[in-house]
């Protein structure tokens, strides 16, 4: 599964520039490219169920998991933080005041660490002979996933987002200031969502990704879904930095990893393929129905 995901990632990177269906969605909706990151997180969870099937020393396992997560986070910081950007230009180097703090590997590191700690510390000793036994044995992990999801939903739809400003460099050494009018709660659009607001407050707008995907939206590009010149009536937020792997959006990445962990438990506790498939299909269809229901009622979760 991980190999297929890597192949999909390569295809998306090469074909996404000229095939819109293979590129990330500018904001609303989903494309094939948008499945790559969740697939990686899912299979990390599955692998953790196998790696921590038996944990003789919980403290030692915690230490190793924390160290591994820190290493992965640091690698991501080096690769996506600005160290290797501009190799062919005179600007090559690191600007600590502008370095991007979050990224793909950083998100995986966070999800990995939380999921590993859940697997190490939050599992029972009950025997597993059925799906209900599985729920009973790992009930605290399921509760953790539920609490994380509720926290995300409360923050996403309940956080007040005030008006905010940002600056971009203009011709020469001039700077241009834009004001984004918000003053709302529960907005899931690009300019006034709680995901971006929390990143701007905690990480700082100068440490966010400077080429947001919504720059390819119809509101921000006359060549949408490709990058292009701004329309005359483009919203003020079109050129604002936004991190697709920010803090709040990484909260749901943890849940994706936890879901993979539960699917890995099925591999561990059930040996027959028929049993495994049945125990995979039941929660899969359940989550699918829930997702369509939330979308129908206008509360779709946007994992920005």
From TrEMBL:
Per the record, the domain of life is Eukaryota
User: Which ranges does the record mark as transmembrane?
Assistant: 35-53, 65-84, 104-122, 142-160, 247-268, 280-298
Respond yes or no to whether keyword Transmembrane is given for this record.
yes
Q: Does the keyword Ligase apply?
A: no
Which Pfam families does the UniProt entry name for this protein? HGSNAT_cat
Domain Heparan-alpha-glucosaminide N-acetyltransferase catalytic, first and last residues per copy:
1-118
Q: Which InterPro entries match?
A: HGSNAT_cat (IPR012429)
Could you list this entry's UniProt keywords, alphabetically sorted.
Membrane, Transmembrane, Transmembrane helix
Q: What is this protein called?
A: Heparan-alpha-glucosaminide N-acetyltransferase catalytic domain-containing protein
Which organism was this protein described from? Aegilops tauschii subsp. strangulata
The upper taxonomy is:
Eukaryota, Viridiplantae, Streptophyta, Embryophyta, Tracheophyta
